[in-house]
Structures are given as structure tokens and as C-alpha cells.
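Researcher: I'd like a candidate sequence for this fold, 210 residues long. If you have to choose between options at a position, lean toward the conservative one.
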């Protein structure tokens, strides 16, 4: 009887429970989540890079201003077919179109008018400013005189007899573009405009700027 009571019976082996992180289903879910996370991060990096590229191309790419003569009117005009000559006073408005995301401040400059490739008059244009994506305007007057032309180097007689003189307005505008008051870059715009002075009506027509 004592032997029966002292006898030790072996315990039944317990069931081994598999760790949840070793479960095949759990591994598949974790792998899928990791892949999605990678896709999200990669997509975010690509979109951020595109945004930086667009910002650099549109904002940080500084362009030269566009300089134009928008209006030219005749104030006074005297001319003679023989000896061929003309004297005229013009009133004009020059525009400075700023295509940048920063203000453009330009310094005083000189605008010249040519007839037959020779200068017949010039004037100083004051400094000014064109705001972000805006157009600045500067008005000026100029006197043109044919006595500045070299002798025998033009068709002034025939042009006066035809009643029309072809003129050219040229000039350069220099200044700087300021982005957020931390970045400055100098830019120069060129003006090249042609027009026709009609002697009889004392008007300007066919004003074209390139």
C-alpha cells in the first residue's frame, strides 16, 4: 500500500503553443504592412521631389523682363521736303513686364530713336519698379532731329515726299530681381520697336515691338 502511495506518476506532456509572431498568417500580414509602408514612403519622396522641381522651375528660375513701347504720340512736328529735314517731339510710354515671383527694380536708362539706322534722338528714362508678375510703366518725352543724320547716307528726301518716316526705338533696362528679400539676381531686358511717323496727320502707326 505504501508502495502504491509513494509511486510517482509521470505527467502528461503539455501542449506547446506556437508564438504568434511565428504564425504564417501573422508573417504574411506583417510583410504586407511593411510593403505598404514602403510604397507610402516611396510615393511621398517622389511627390516631394516633384514639388521641389516644380518650385525650382517656376519660382527660382529668374527671367529677363520684357520691355515695350506701348504708346507713342506726336506733340510737335516740322518737316521740309527741300532741303529735306524734320524736327519732332514725341511723348511715349515704356512698359516693363516682370514675369518673376520677385519684385524687379530697374535703374535709369537711355532710350534711343533711329532713322535709317542712325540715331536722331535719345532721352533718359527714370528708374522704376515692376512688382511680382506685374507691369511697370514709365513715361518720357524725346526730341528727334534730322540734322543729326550723316549727309547722303539716307533716303530722307524720298521718305518725306512719301509722307512717312520709319523709326526705330531701342534701349536696355537693367535691374535686379529680389526674391523674399534674401535672393537678388541682376537681369537686363532689351527693347526693339519699329513704328511709322505719318507726316500729314502727325501720328504714329504700326508700332511693333519684338
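Model: Candidate sequence:
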Amino acid at each position: 500500500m505504501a508502495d502504491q502511495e509513494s509511486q510517482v506518476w509521470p505527467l502528461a506532456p503539455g501542449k506547446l503553443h506556437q508564438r504568434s509572431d511565428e504564425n504564417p498568417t501573422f508573417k504574411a500580414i506583417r510583410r504586407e504592412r511593411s510593403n505598404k509602408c514602403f510604397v507610402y514612403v516611396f510615393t511621398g519622396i517622389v511627390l516631394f521631389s516633384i514639388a521641389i522641381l516644380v518650385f525650382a522651375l517656376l519660382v527660382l528660375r529668374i527671367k529677363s523682363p520684357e520691355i515695350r513701347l506701348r504708346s507713342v504720340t506726336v506733340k510737335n512736328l516740322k518737316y521740309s521736303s527741300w532741303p529735306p529735314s524734320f524736327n519732332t517731339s514725341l511723348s511715349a510710354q515704356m512698359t516693363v513686364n516682370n514675369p518673376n515671383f520677385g519684385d524687379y527694380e530697374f535703374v535709369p536708362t537711355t532710350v534711343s530713336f533711329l532713322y535709317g539706322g542712325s540715331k536722331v534722338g535719345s532721352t533718359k528714362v527714370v528708374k522704376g519698379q515692376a512688382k511680382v508678375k506685374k507691369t511697370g510703366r514709365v513715361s518720357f518725352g524725346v526730341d528727334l532731329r534730322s540734322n543729326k543724320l550723316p549727309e547722303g547716307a539716307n533716303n530722307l528726301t524720298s521718305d518725306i515726299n512719301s509722307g512717312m518716316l520709319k523709326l526705330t526705338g531701342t534701349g536696355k533696362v537693367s535691374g535686379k530681381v529680389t526674391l523674399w528679400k534674401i535672393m537678388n539676381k541682376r537681369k537686363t531686358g532689351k527693347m526693339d520697336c519699329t513704328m511709322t511717323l505719318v507726316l500729314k496727320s502727325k501720328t504714329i502707326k504700326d508700332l511693333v515691338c519684338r
